[in-house]
Structures are given as C-alpha cells and as structure tokens.
Specification:
The chain has 17 helices and 12 strands. The chain is an alpha+beta fold and 451 residues long.
C-alpha cells in the first residue's frame, strides 16, 4: 500500500510565484526542482497533480516496465486539439497504436533505411559548399534547412530547391507556429484551436495547405504505383496481418507524413546544432574528431560502411544528445491510481519524464555538465533509464536508427571540411519548446580546414 502523503514539492503559492520565471528556461527550472526535492517532486497545478521524475529507475517504470498503466499525454493533446496529425503515430492513443506502428515500422528497420545513406551524404556535401570562409551563419537555421531537405527527399523523393520548395516553405512556417504555441499549449489544451491567436490561426492554415499538397502527391502515387524508393512508396505498399488495419488509408498516410516531417527533421537539426556549439566550446574534442575523420576517411566522402569506423564521431553525437536532448520532455498520464516510491498518486496525474534532467544527474554521469565524448568508451549501462533521448517502451522513436545515421554521417561530411567558432559576442541561450532550440540562434563563423 502506498502512503497517503504526497511526495515533497513546492507549495501551490510558491509554485505560482515561480512560474513566470520558469518560462525563461523550463528545463533548468525543473532541474532546480529536482535538485531540491529529489527523485519525485509533486507540483500541484490547479486540480491536477503533476509529478516530476528524478530517478532512472522511476523513468524506466513509467516508460517501460509499467507503460500499460499510462497514456501518452502529448498524443492525447494533439488529438484533442485536432490541429495536427489526427491519426499519425504521434497522435494515436493506446488503442490502435500497436496496429498502426506495425504498418509503419518495417519502413524504418535498419536494412531498409540503409539506402538513404547516400542521400544524406550528398545533402551534407551540398550544404558544405554553401558556407564561405569567415562569413557568420546561423547554424540552427542551416541545420533546419539541411534536415528538412533530407526529410523531403527520403519521404517524398522531392528536392527542396525545386519540386519540394512549396512544401519546404510551408513546413518552415508550420514549425514556427507549432513551436510558438508551446508552452501555452500546455495550458490551453483542447481549446487551443478556438483561441484567436495569430500562431494558432497560422498553424491551422499551414496544416490545411500542406495536407492539400500531400493528398495530391498520394493520389498521384496511387495511380502510378512505381516504387520510387522513398518512405511514401513503403507506406503505400505496407501490408499487415491485422484484419482491421491491413493497409494504410490515405488519411493515415497523410497524417504519418506530417508526423514524420514534424517529428523527423527538427530534432535531428537541433541535435546537430548543439553538436557544433559544443565542439566550438571544446577544442580538444574538435581536434579528436578531425583526427578520426582524416585518418579513417582520408578525404573521401563517408558512407554507411564507414559508420562503425567512426566511434569518436558517434560518441560526440551521443554526448551532445545527453547534454541537450532535442526532445527534452516526455509526458505520460496515469490511467488509474499509481504507486511510485511509496507514494500513491491519483488517476489522471501527469508524469514528467525528462531526458534533460536525468541525463544531467551526477549519479549516472560524473561531472555531468562537462562535454566528454570519451565517457562513452566501454561504458557499462547502469540500471534504469539514464540515457533515453529517443524515449523508451512501445512509443520509442521510430526514427532512431535513421537519426544515428543522419547524425554521424552529417557530422563527418561537414567536419571534414569545416571548423566552426562561435561568433564573438553571440550568446547562446537554450529555449526549451517542443524541442530544445535556442532563443537567438547559434551564429557561428565557419573556417575552412587546411588539409
Ligand atoms: C535526433 C533525432 C530524434 C530524437 C531525439 C527523437 C526523439 C523522440 C522521442 C523522445 C520520442 C518519444 C516521445 C514519447 O514517448 O512521448 C519520439 C517519437 C517519435 N519519433 Fe522521434 N526523434 C528523432 C528523430 C526522428 C525521426 C528522424 C523520425 C522519422 C523519420 C521520428 C519520428 C518519430 C515518431 C513517428 C514518433 C512517435 C512514435 C510513437 O508514438 O509510436 N523521430 N521521438
């Protein structure tokens, strides 16, 4: 039996006084609460109890071991707000999720996505021709355009500079509005679509525009069934044993496409942006990555077979996602009473499980705030979820393998030619929204490497 006493946490009055400041950087605000209150903190927000999880064991309980006892709050929100991805994986609740996932998942198994390695490096090569020596550039924007271009190619076989330009431009706007309604999103919940706010109107308008275009593309593909080798062809061809959902309908494919465009390119862009920033602050790590690339690749363009030969490059990407996990917060809602750490929590409580918080815990990572890619060499996995930038359990990211390939190959192909220094005077400030971006971008000065 769990005790009736609530876990520790700030009083409602203290919390209310802290909330305005918390919007500056909610991730750091929650990290401070965790440092003060420990493995489980109770935050009373109105009638809802919200629990902040501060231990890897509890995170594992919620996301994996006892996942059936929770719904995905974000999926519920997106569906109730009815503004995005009505039926895509991101917005599908418990029932229907497994069937939908079994249709989509085969397209993402490692063997199937291997064919995209060449697309990724060719886009990386194209990007590295765009910078000029000594000319400052906002890496957050650059990485956003680069990964959106890759997503359009992989998903629809479209080129962002030509036939995919329209979708690319709409996606830029959609993402802007989507991010801007967060965190108000957390407060407004399903009423969001009725709020007469520019970003809400913008979000709905762009969503409608992009849906029209994507329906058009699906229609064309249904009439000409040639396999174009992209994810859209895989989804149209997908079949499952499930009687109720043996193949994907146009609406499901459309929703999946928007989910993937939204969920797929932005986190990779953020992970890469933070990687360049961290390398600029850690010259020794940058030197080691350059040494590895020069020795292993000898100036040649990297390909998938090289990935296993670039362990340091991979650990740089891994360490960047430890310190700055692009999806910094995962939220679950309990379906019934739930006991955790000796406390009994009521049905309908929200549980905040944050990779940002647990991946900065000194119990799991000595000198947690230092960027040390070498810490991953021969590391024994501790128990519980202490590293989970891609989530856990049955809702673990479908794009995880694809993200590792993109991360390592893009870092390799770009760092081969360029070194980036932070523009003097530019201050990088994290801005945790749906993904972990920055307030003013990351202006960096590219320097061509002398080989
Ligand atoms: C560095 C890159 C990425 C990171 C850090 C990331 C992170 C995550 C996380 C943490 C979740 C779980 C959210 C939850 O449990 O509530 C998730 C789900 C998801 N991700 Fe990713 N992601 C990345 C890239 C991608 C890519 C490249 C794609 C697609 C091409 C993708 C598609 C999805 C989808 C569809 C889901 C929902 C899965 C489900 O609910 O069954 N992600 N991602």
């Amino acid at each position: 039996m769990g005790s009736q006493t609530n876990p520790p946490g700030p009083s409602s009055k203290t919390l209310l006084s802290l909330i305005p400041g918390s919007f500056q950087n909610p991730a750091e605000f929650l990290l401070d609460l965790k440092r003060e209150y420990g493995d489980i903190t109770c935050l009373r927000l109105g009638i809802k109890n919200v629990y902040l999880i501060g231990s890897a064991e509890y995170a594992e309980d919620i996301l994996e071991t006892r996942q059936e006892e929770f719904s995905n709050w974000v999926a519920w929100f997106i569906k109730s707000a009815d503004i995005l991805q009505g039926e895509g994986l991101l917005a599908t609740e418990s029932e229907g999720h497994t069937a939908r996932r079994s249709l989509v998942e085969p397209a993402f198994v490692r063997e199937n996505i291997r064919k995209y390695g060449a697309v990724i490096t060719s886009y990386g090569v194209r990007q590295r021709e765009l910078w000029s020596d000594g000319q400052p550039s906002d890496m957050e924007k650059d990485m956003g355009r680069l990964t959106l271009g890759i997503a359009l190619k992989i998903l629809f076989d479209l080129d962002m500079d030509t036939d995919g330009k329209e979708i690319g431009d709409i996606m830029d706007k959609l993402l802007f509005h989507y991010s801007a309604v967060f965190p108000p999103v957390l407060l407004a919940q399903p009423l969001l679509r009725h709020i007469p706010h520019n970003n809400v109107r913008g979000l709905i308008k762009e969503k409608n525009e992009i849906s029209k275009i994507i329906y058009g593309i699906i229609g064309e593909r249904r009439t000409d069934s040639t396999d174009r080798g992209d994810l859209l062809s895989s989804m149209i061809a997908a079949r499952s044993e499930n009687e109720e959902l043996s193949e994907m309908t146009d609406t499901q494919i459309m929703d999946e496409c928007i989910s993937m465009l939204l969920a797929g390119h932005d986190p990779v862009a953020k992970a890469l942006t933070w990687t360049w920033y961290l390398l600029s602050q850690n010259p020794e790590a940058e030197q080691r990555i350059h040494d590895e690339l020069d020795t292993v690749l000898g100036g040649g363009i990297p390909g998938l077979p090289d990935m296993d030969r670039l362990p340091y490059t991979e650990s740089v990407f891994r360490e960047a996602m430890r310190l700055y996990p692009p999806v910094w917060m995962i939220i679950r809602q309990s379906l019934g009473e739930f006991e955790l750490g000796g406390y009994s929590t009521p049905k309908g409580s929200l549980f905040l499980v944050s990779p940002y918080i647990l991946q900065r815990d000194p119990r799991y990572y000595p000198a947690p705030l230092s960027f040390k890619p070498e810490r991953w060499k021969g590391r024994d996995e501790s128990s519980g979820l202490s590293y989970f930038p891609f989530g856990g359990g049955r809702r673990i990211c479908t794009g995880e393998s694809m993200s590792w390939i993109q991360g390592v190959l893009l870092i390799a192909v770009i760092a081969q030619r360029w070194s980036f220094g932070l523009d003097p005077g530019h201050v990088v400030e994290p801005k945790p929204q749906i993904t972990l971006g920055t307030k003013h971008g990351v202006t960096m000065v590219p320097r061509k490497r002398v080989l």
